[in-house]
Amino acid sequence: MSDLINLTAKEINSGIVGKKFKATEVMQAFLDQISTKDKCLNSFISLNDKAIEQAKIIDDKVASGSDIGILGGVPVAIKDMLCTKGLKTTAGSKMLENFIPPYSATVVNKLEASGAIVIGKCNQDEFAMGSSNETSYFGACKNPWDTDYVPGGSSGGSAVAVSARMAPISIGTDTGGSIRQPASFCGVVGVKPTYGRVSRYGIVAFASSLDQAGPFSRTIEDSTLVLESICGQDKYDSTTSDASVEPWSTGLSDKVGVLKVGLPKEYFEGTLDVDVKRSIDIAKDSLKEMGCEFVEVSIPHTKYSVPIYYIIATSEASSNLARYDGVRFGHRANFDDKPAADLIDFYCRNRGEGFGTEVKRRITLGTFTLSSGYYDAYYKKACQVRNLLKQDFEKSFKSCDIILSPVTTTPAFKIGARISDPIAMYKNDIFTTSTNLAGLPGLSLPVTLSKDKLPIGVQLTAAAFNESKLLQVAHQMEQLISFKEKPSNV
Amino acid sequence: MFSDWTPVIGLEIHAQLNTKSKIFCNDSTTFGKGDNQNISPLSLGMPGALPVVNKMAIENSIKTGLALNSEIRRKSVFSRKNYFYPDLPKGYQISQFDEPICEGGFVDFYIEDEKIRVGITRAHMEEDAGKSTHHGDYSLINLNRAGIPLLEIVSEPDIKSSAHAAEYARTVRQILQYLDVCDGNLEEGSLRCDCNVSVMKNGATEFGTRVEIKNINSFRFVEKAIDYEISRQIEVLESGGEIFQETRLFDSTKNKTYAMRKKEQAHDYRFFPDPDLLPVIISEEWIEKVKSTLPELPMDMAERFQVEYKIPKYDALVLTQEKELAAYFEEVAKSSDNAKSASNWVMVELQRELNDKKLNIESSPVSSDRLAQLIKLIDTKVISGKIAKNVFSIMLVEDKNPDVIIKEQGLVQISDSGAIEKMVDDVIAASPNQVEQYRAGKDKLFGYFVGQIMKASKGQANPEMINKLLKEKLK
Amino acid sequence: MDIEKVATLARLNLSDAEKDKFEAQMSSILEYFEDLKEVNTEGVFPLVTPTEIVNAPREDIAVDWEEADNALSIAPQVKGNLFQVPPVV
Q1: What are the Cα distances from residue B17, in Å, to A7, B125, B215, C60, C73?
Q2: Is the Cβ pair A386, C75 closer than 8 Å?
Q3: Who is most buried in A334, A416, A450, B437, counting CB within 10 A?
Q4: Does the structural domain A2-258+409-417+442-481 have CATH classification 3.40.1190.20?
Q5: Which of A154, A199, A396, A405 is catalytic?
Q6: Is the dihedral of CA A347, A350, A354, A355 positive or negative?
Q7: Strand A402-406 to strand A117-122: parallel, antiparallel, or no bridges (unpaired)?
Q8: Residue ranges of the domains in chain B?
Q9: Chain B: closest CA distance from residue A416 (Å)
Q10: Mean per-residue pLDDT, B254-262
Q11: Which fold has domain B417-473?
Q12: Chain A residues with CB-CB distance to C33 below 8 A
């Protein structure tokens, strides 16, 4: 049984197709791992009580010789930001504590069409607002490498599920680094696709022009299979692109030739954390072995990426979260004992009770940055600087094929260390926010452990819609680096 | 009328566009469904629901813009208008702010004999909100209407009087109905009209403070609301007071405007471009295609009727009030080859019947074809105009062609000169006194002789022939 | 920033602790945003969506949602088939 939970998604699928084991056995193995490990990790908010039933359907298909799909029989954990029909979807918030959506996100539908089975819904920062999974209404999620440390956020639960072998693959969402940063902190692969590759339909919206769903896995190959399943234009999401989805998994080992790897000078100015520097050196060694060359590139507007991210994301969020008002669904305060004084009071109490402090902070900020008299100085200005930042990347990709950078400034930090200082927390995002702002694809690849035995990943970023190159390079680096560590008590 | 003061009036007309599905989601727009049946995740504002714009809504907006002589923006943007209200499911309305689909334009109409032009500032697309009903200590919300496409047409503050305002609104509605893009029903709410009113001292260079008036559901009330508001503002200003920029509601029972409660007025809408929707790009081809589907517009049709059919302006304007009526008239005019007659019959005889029975032209008991036949029967002198009226009243209730009715009723006009000559001789013989008086100079008696012959022939003698023969015989 | 005014605009009740915390934090955050003044954005188009995608409108076809009744069953308060809220007027 313990062998099954250490298999990759690809191995699970081939094993089921090859009748080496059954989908129900696989699902049971992961469910057992969850019941053993998750009490102290708190990475799942709810489980799918029909998981075994759905696994049996896969087994029946195998028995009758039908095709089960590229992810057939593979359990997948889903961040609680994605709607799953008939299964509670909370976005980590009291506001949606008991919300059972009557529809599923397109991503979930596509995964199920590829044969994957939802095993459960993962913990996260409330409404994806956070970088440590400490703002969840359902309690903090812990890093399986050391439970005193944060797993990262906002997709903390999804990263932990894969890292602690409670699911072979999971789905998170990334708005300013929420897949890449927890992937780095938890020693797993995390990929954010190009903006427009993956449908946002059915995904609780945080920042519409930045959000993208993406996979966590232990190998680049697994994430690639997931991307092949979930990418594609969706008629329910006007912002999806018609860019074709290629069979990237078949080309992962193709020779990349003399690749030019860009190193943004602004990222490497000043002193890097010693462990982070070491991870970059290991990454560079593997790239050298692949025959790559390094070029210095420049992203001059780097220093503004965090402030413009926080202006744009909070502005969009203040509007996206206006629908949570207790009228048609979600939390409504108790008005039996104390009736609402008026309509404003009705709204203020529902929302005041339903949302946690970080969410209220960001809604307040975003309401301000869009408000009369401040719109030009904040929102409009941020959008203009965003344009300049995007142009910085376009210029850089003229002289390089891929960009290498750290994911975070340090390895995981202790639970409680940064939560009372929002600006310290926000500045964590310096290396990841610019990717979302420019709409580019990026991933985190685990490389090494810090001196405190916490994982560190490195970030690769490619030009828009160049998932092909991104995944190829990452796969080949992965083979050379061969990071085989896993959390000690897993 | 207001001596020292000049009123400045602008109208904002919201037209519900006739599409089968809503503007940003594919819920049905069918009226009369059960409560909260035309809904889906987007019209409920559920998590993760996303808008996808309806092509027909864009096309209908382009069509309207072209008919209003506006410029169609090749790139227009949807923006979010953020505010909280229970009938607004997402907590924001998707509208257009600084890049609306139509800009500029104008509309012409006649007041008596004067052609008036009112400018259009812009027209933009947006979604309608749901409906709330109030029941004392609670309210109920129905979201069937949430998301229905609206086109908001904003006039320049060009309108000089309440009568002009009402006529402008009627004209816009007429154009929308001609285009088949909107039902234009003020009472049911498929057309809504808000007025902006201010006054300025004659010769002043700056506009006065503008007040918005809502809750007007007929064109008559448009006039009354504006008249009341103009008087109110003048009264306030003349007594040294100040006009506040506010929204007032019209009370149709008292014919007054009254202020809404202060709390409802403070809105900071925080407009920003909707990141879920990309800019709408409209190609030259699309515009040309829509242009080619534009029907003839009412003003153009009225002018053409005057030239082609040589009917007076008043008639042309009445006949083109509704597209279907104009089409009916034209069919009759062409078929009968007598436009003047067609115009009279439609405007007088037929219209009276339709008004009495509260029918529209599409439900006319007499088809255009049959009316044309009737006119031809008069023109070929088979029957007289007077007899035709009788035939017509039978046609209204019996499903028969006029010639059949004439045969059945034996109403064919007597045009046999021999028969009429005999009738003339008989009447002259029977009325020697009148003949003498007439020959002595009492011309008015001619009518008496005609009347007698009509009586004798049961109205069927050909009047022209009567006149000719009488004149000869009475010499 | 007038925290109370903005919170009301956003329809959020803040606890006293939250109000105090926000007062201090918002000033530092806005100060942090001041850096943007350094950037020359003259004539730069404000970017809203990062990738170049063209709007694809949909055909005007009505579809009935089979979950319409289910959707009302999860509402906090319903009367008949309508959502119930405190008086709106």
Answers
A1: 57, 10, 20, 12, 31
A2: no
A3: A450
A4: no
A5: A154
A6: positive
A7: unpaired
A8: 5-289, 296-409, 417-473
A9: 30
A10: 82
A11: Arc Repressor Mutant, subunit A (1.10.10)
A12: 307, 310-311, 378
pLDDT at B73 over 60: yes
* Residue numbers in C near B44 (CB within 8 A): 71
The answer to whether the CB atoms of A379 and B89 lie below 8 A apart is no
This model of the complex carries an ipTM of: 0.96
Determine whether the interchain pair C62/B26 forms a contact, defined as Cβ–Cβ distance below 8 Å.
yes
* C-alpha B416, offset from chain centre: 48
Which of A104, A158, A178, A315 is flagged as catalytic? A178
Please report residues of A whose CB lies closer than 8 A to that of C47.
Answer: 383-384, 386-387, 390
Cross-chain Cβ contact A347/C11 below 8 Å: yes
Residues of B in contact with C84 (CB under 8 A): 138-141
What distance in Å separates the CA atoms of residue B301 and residue B299, rounded to the nearest whole number? 5
C48 reaches B (C-beta below 8 A):
yes
B 252-311 near A (Cβ less than 8 A):
263, 268, 270-272, 275-278
B62 pLDDT more than 80 = yes
A104 is annotated as an active-site residue: no
**Tell me: the pLDDT tens digits for A140-169?**
999 999 999 999 999 999 999 999 999 999
Q: CA A256, CA A476: separation in Å to the nearest integer?
A: 9
- Rounded distance, CA A295 to CA B207, Å? 63
| B130-168 pLDDT per residue, tens | 999 999 889 999 999 999 999 999 999 999 999 999 999
The pair of three-digit structure tokens given for residue A433, joined into one six-digit string: 């926010």
Active site residue A39: no
Whether omega before A154 lies within 30 degrees of 0, making that bond cis, reads yes
Active-site residue flag, A265:
no
Among partner residues A102, A327, A371, which is closest to B270 by beta-carbon distance?
A371
How sure is the predictor about A271, in pLDDT bands with cuts at 50, 70 and 90? confident
Q: What tokens appear for C15 in the block?
A: 């606890």
Residue B41 per-residue DSSP state = T
Q: pTM of this prediction? A: 0.92
Q: Which residues of B touch C86 (CB under 8 A)?
A: 137-139
Q: Please write the tens of the pLDDT for every residue from A368-400.
A: 999 999 999 999 999 999 999 999 999 999 999
Residue of B42, B84, B280, B281 best to disrupt the A interface, most CBs of A under 10 A = B84
pLDDT per residue as tens digits for the range A185-220? 999 999 999 999 999 999 999 999 999 999 999 999
Query: Whose structure tokens read 């006649």?
Result: B110
The first and second tokens of residue A473, run together, are: 């390079």
Helix axes A51-63, A9-17, angle to 10 degrees: 50
Helices A305-320 and A357-370 meet at what angle, rounded to 10? 100
Within C7-62, strands assigned E span: none
- Which residues in chain B are closer than 8 Å to A101, comparing Cβ atoms? 46-48
What is the total residue count of chain B?
A: 475
Q: How confident is the model at residue B187 (pLDDT cuts 50, 70, 90)?
A: confident
Pairing state of beta strands A260-264 and A293-297?
Answer: parallel
Catalytic residue among A10, A61, A79, A469: A79
Q: Which two three-digit tokens encode residue A242?
A: 């018609």
Closest CA to A381 of A300, A432, A307: A307
- Are B36 and C84 an interchain contact pair (Cβ–Cβ within 8 Å)? no
